[in-house]
Amino acid sequence: MKRRLAVIPLLLAAAVTGALAWAAYAPIGTASHDALFEIPKGTWARRMAGEKAEILPDTITLVLGVNDVLLLRNSDTVPQVFGPVLIMPGQDFRLPFEQAGEHPFACTAHASGQMTVVVKPTPSAGWQRLQWRLQTLLARAPWRN
Amino acid sequence: MIRPFMLALSLALAGFAQAADKLKSGTFDPPRMAPQIVQKAADGKDFALDQFRGKVVVLEFGYTSCADVCPVSLALLKQARERLGPLADRLQVVFVTVDPQRDTAPKLKAYLEQFDKSFIGLTGTGEQMAAIRKAYGISATKKMVDGSKTEYTMGHSSYLYFIDPQGKLRALMPFGRPADDIVHDVALLAQGK
Q1: Cβ contact (<8 Å) for A85 and B26?
Q2: A95 and B26: CB-CB below 8 Å?
Q3: Which of A33, A67, A116, B100 has its CA 20 to 30 A from that of A50?
């Protein structure tokens, strides 16, 4: 009985090591590369009523190979200058990125008149990928909402 | 043994083909018809955007006194046109001034000829040019140069606007992308993709 109990920590350690190794070296696979920012229906009406309706953050962070396509969607009933482009009602604008770096865009929706898209390189296998997976996991944790 | 290898190879090739078929620019879905532009061109000829159906039209909004963005984009467009080879005639570059006050027709014509004689320049009254900008959702802001009462610069969109042979506004390419990206997208659009 004592011997069996002694095996449990070893099994747990092996499981944790295996999970960490997987997180550090398994390739990153995502169903979609889109990072969606949507203007919901009624945004224009809310703005006309004097409400603040901020849709785009000042800085958008994307990761190459993970979510490297900025998808802007206008679900409102009027055309919107959304980020750097005029998007008609019901229209999407999909902007792919292939290079890491900071991409500043003129954007009338922001008080500063500018929006920055930061594109980070694909996390390389090993410590970087492990770090990225842990950060993603923490960001999705239920207590964050 | 050969069958799984061939399957993996064909899947990989299909993946590459799909990636190659995608525009490198930002794309609209669904695309809308590009707003019509009717204007006297800098060379004195009548210009109507819909006359260029069958070609890929790349619109650039800028001004001749622009020190950084416009000359770089025009140089890239010139390079792209050279690299397009037999498809070069399927590309029409149209440069729309955001500074009609200073960009007279002769000045604009002379400026564009330094890059490529096929490039078309559009200028007109302030109201005419503002109407074109509004249709494309472009803003242009005048900023006085520090210490000067007459010198100014214009803040403007640095995107290239791609219109396909059917006249649809298909894509926008941010400033700074290499000439090969322009070649890639013009070639795809010219092939009806």
Answers
A1: yes
A2: yes
A3: A116
- CA-to-CA distance for B32 and A92, rounded, in angstroms? 11
Whether this model's ipTM surpasses 0.85 comes out as no
pLDDT for the residue A144: 66
**Whole-angstrom Cα distance, residue B72 to residue B75?**
5
* Interval B21-35: pLDDT, tens: 789 999 999 999 999
Dist CA A39 CA A6 (whole Å): 57
Per the CB < 8 Å rule, is B136 touching A86? yes
Asked if residues B159 and A84 have their Cβ atoms less than 8 Å apart, the reply is yes
Q: Which helix (H) or strand (E) holds B61?
A: strand B56-62
Structural contact between residues B78 and B116, judged by C-beta atoms closer than 8 angstroms? yes
Inter-chain touch B32–A98, beta carbons under 8 Å: no
Quick check: A84 contacting B, CB < 8 Å? yes
- Cβ-contact B20, B183 below 8 angstroms: no
Taking CA–CA distances from B32, the nearest residue in chain A reads A88
What's the mean pLDDT in B185-191? 96
Outline where DSSP puts E strands in chain A.
Answer: 34-39, 59-63, 69-74, 80-82, 85-87, 92-96, 101-106, 114-120
Picking from A84, A96, A98, the nearest residue to B159 by CB comes out as A84
Domains of chain B are: 25-190 (3.40.30.10)
